[in-house]
Amino acid sequence: MLGKSPDANADQPSLEQVRKILLIGAAGAALYATAFVAWSGVVVDEVVRAAQVISGDVRYPAGHPDGIYYPGAFSLSNYAAAAIWFFVPSAYALSALRNVAWVWGSVFVPFAVGSVLTRSASWATLAAVLSVCEVAVNFEGAYPMRVWPLSTSHGAFGADAAIVTLVLWVVRSWTFAGFLLGLLPSLHAAMTLPVWPWAIAMALLKRGPQGRVEWRRFARGVGGGMALCSVVLVLSLRRELPAPAEPYVVSGNGDHIRAEFVDHYDGHRRAFDIVSRAYLLGPVALGLAGGLALWGQRRGRGLTAQDRRAWAAVLSLVAVSWAEVYASRVTHAMWDRLPLVLDVLMPYRLSNLSALLLPSCLLGSVAVALRSLSPRLSRRALWVGLLVLMTATAWLAAATVVGRWNEWERVALHAPFVLVGLLIGIRAQAREDGASPRLPPVVATGVVALLALVPAWRHSVVIAMVVALVTFLTVRGRCCRRTPVINRARWMHALAALSCVCLLGAGLARGKNWSARQNALLRFDSDARALSAWLRKNAEPREMVLEPLEPVLEIQARTGQPVLFDRETLQTMTYLPRLAGTVGAMVRDLYGIDFSRPDELGGLRAGRPETWVDNWGRRSREQWLDLARLYGFRLVVSPKDLPLSLPVALPGPAWTLYEIR
Q1: pLDDT at 299
Q2: Burial class, 661, CB count within 10 angstroms (exposed 0-12 / middle 13-18 / buried 19+)
Q3: C-alpha angle 444/450/454, rounded to 5°?
């Protein structure tokens, strides 16, 4: 299927066959995700905490931020987790399910986009391989992107849901597309900002359902999704909470506290730097991919009508997303902050949709370019790409064996430049053959050359130019002659498949190592079991434990014991602003960070949150006793390297449990 001639477009898979490819890809991604989680271990997921509170298994005093936030959050994931918890009250099982779903999305989403852009399982698989190699992660915006599971899964699931909605729309699966579209606000409200306007525009432009039957299916799907969405909304609004009790009755300036927290501590909501990989290089590369795929195709050379609809759908969603991102940035610059509704939703995170789509779009553009060449010339271009793929495979396999994990970031960063260079070289030869106008490769080369003005990108730009030149000369026969190996497609497919298998296997090792470093304190290991056993024996079920702000320990999720305060409690005020006064008072009392006095927060703005570390280290036993009487707690967990002036109740490998007495 790779490298077909233009007149072979009629033999490309139909929509029904693409749907079958998607089903096979979904099954394969599920197997890969299950294998990864079984091998690397389970990481505690944030919905466990929500499930425990919503189900009533963990109870907080009246007015505590966690007791208000989790039942009141408009989140299908939280309430679905609570429903699962009702039947299977296991933090391990619930986290394992979410971990598998996370990796499944990381593999399936690029596969699905590659499928609809190329109608080829081969290209789609290569897109999934690039995802496993963490190519998209290098273009993450203010909100982090990860291939492998973390405890914070809501953002990853929301982005995946938005792109799956796009894929279902392209393959005209109207019932499921409508259902996800209606359900999207409860999955991740921020994703409705680009997806709903995009869907409305597509429908008005007659790029959506056609005819009464399709519209009826779509309406049923939207109605079902919005009905379930309404159920979640009613559940989140009808929770009857008791009146707040001391010390959670606070009348401070919550708006000011929240604003200072965002300015000094919350990097997800800060104004971004436009000259960056996420907000300049990523959209430029995606624009080049889309432009070179669509340019000069009006005569049907390389793209069918269905291909053009798929590309139009993907690029229009990208355009809507970036229009909202840059409009938010302009608003932020003009008024020094975003309106509260936008600030809660974090519109800068929408750039991650573009990053997720980038590998699939680049590969899709290469596939389209190859169709503009004859089979003989396209095999020559594929040979260049195959040599690059095999080189990267050898490099990453060697790095995996010796444990040099930083090499992954280096290869992943250069991969989009290599694909752009390959694309420019193919398009230049297509222009020589009269298959496309002269302008696209010239413009693309000029844009890539301009990127060399940024010093950090010069090395990658040189790589792109070299690949473009080698590809062009190879296709023209200047760098290689006709040989049996080059012209045997089965050899090329076999070598490409071997490289993909090796990269997927190396990805498992890379992911396990990454997860072991990032999630070392978030596992259901012997230390968590020891802490849980001690708490069951020595603490009351509703007795709260105070955690450090760093590192995140997720004590409640792993032990079932309520937590007085931790970093997640600190973040609740950004999503539910009415909690800001209470949260601000608690973080001031417990950690010594006063967000109402910005003149004392310079260290936080500089990325050095030592304030609470110093305060805990200097705090006397008498001061701890005063806090214990105020907030009604007696247990404190501190990092191993931060000893407190309190009796040790239970030592751990990276933390110590202290008792206030």
Answers
A1: 45
A2: exposed
A3: 135
Task: Kindly report the number of other CB atoms within 10 A of residue 501's CB atom.
Answer: 13
Using omega within 30 degrees of 0 as the cis cutoff, is the peptide bond preceding 194 cis? no
What is the reported pLDDT for 606? 39
Structure tokens at 418: 């290599």
Give the pLDDT confidence score for residue 144 in this predicted structure: 87
Rg for the chain (alpha carbons), in Å?
27
Q: 651: helix, coil or strand?
A: strand
Coil vs helix vs strand at 270: coil
3-state secondary structure of 563: strand
Residue with tokens 């950690």: 591
What whole-number distance in Å separates Cα of residue 35 and Cα of residue 593? 43
Could you tell me if 163 and 109 are in contact, meaning their C-beta atoms sit under 8 angstroms apart? Answer: yes
Q: Minimal CA–CA distance to 355: which of 131, 196, 202, 508? A: 131
Q: Hey, what long-range contacts does 585-588 have (CB within 8 A, 24 or more apart)? A: 585/247, 585/250, 585/252, 586/65, 586/631
* Cα–Cα distance measured from residue 138 to residue 289, given in angstroms and rounded to the nearest whole number: 17
Q: Which residues pair with 656 in a beta bridge?
A: 638, 651
Gap between the Cα atoms of 389 and 638, Å rounded: 47
- How far the first Cα of the chain sits from its last, in Å, is 72
Whole-number pLDDT of residue 1: 36
Q: What angle do CA 234, 236, 238 make, to 5 degrees?
A: 60
Task: Give CA–CA dist 589/595, Å, rounded.
Answer: 11
Q: How far is CA 586 from the centre of its chain?
A: 31
CA quadruple 494, 500, 505, 506: dihedral positive or negative?
A: positive
CA distance 209 to 216: 9
Q: Which residues of the chain have pLDDT under 70?
A: 1-12, 296-302, 431-440, 478-489, 599-610
What one-character DSSP code corresponds to residue 3? T
User: What residue type is 440 in one-letter code?
Assistant: P
**Continuous H helices in 295-350:** 305-335, 340-345
Instruction: Name residues whose C-beta falls within 8 Å of residue 56's C-beta, 6 or more positions apart in sequence.
Output: none
What CA–CA distances, in Å, run from 41 to 48, 103, 144, 390, 522? Answer: 16, 13, 22, 30, 10
C-alpha dihedral over 438, 473, 123, 36, to 10 degrees? -130
* CA 333, chain centre distance (Å): 26
- For the four alpha carbons of 183, 186, 191 and 194, in that order, the dihedral sign comes to positive
- Between CA 111 and CA 292 the distance in angstroms is 21
Closest CA to 549 of 563, 572, 573, 568: 568
- Which tokens sit at 134? 């963490």
Q: Give the residue carrying structure tokens 């929301």.
A: 158
**How far is residue 199 CA from its own chain's centroid?**
22
Lookup: tokens for 375: 């089979």
d(CA 356, CA 146): 10
Q: Parallel, antiparallel, or unpaired: how do β-strands 635-639 and 545-546 relate?
A: parallel
What is the SS3 string spanning 93-113?
Answer: HHHHHHHHHHHHHHHHHHHHH
CA–CA separation, 362 and 384 (whole Å): 16
DSSP-assigned beta bridge partners for residue 651: 656
Closest CA to 383 of 440, 303, 459, 467: 467
d(CA 510, CA 467): 27
For the chain, the residue count is 661
What are the angstrom distances between the C-alpha of 132 and each of 300, 355, 511? 33, 14, 8
Q: What angle do CA 379, 381, 383 make, to 5 degrees?
A: 70
Q: Where are the beta strands (DSSP E) in 388-470?
A: none
CA 490 from chain center: how many Å? 36
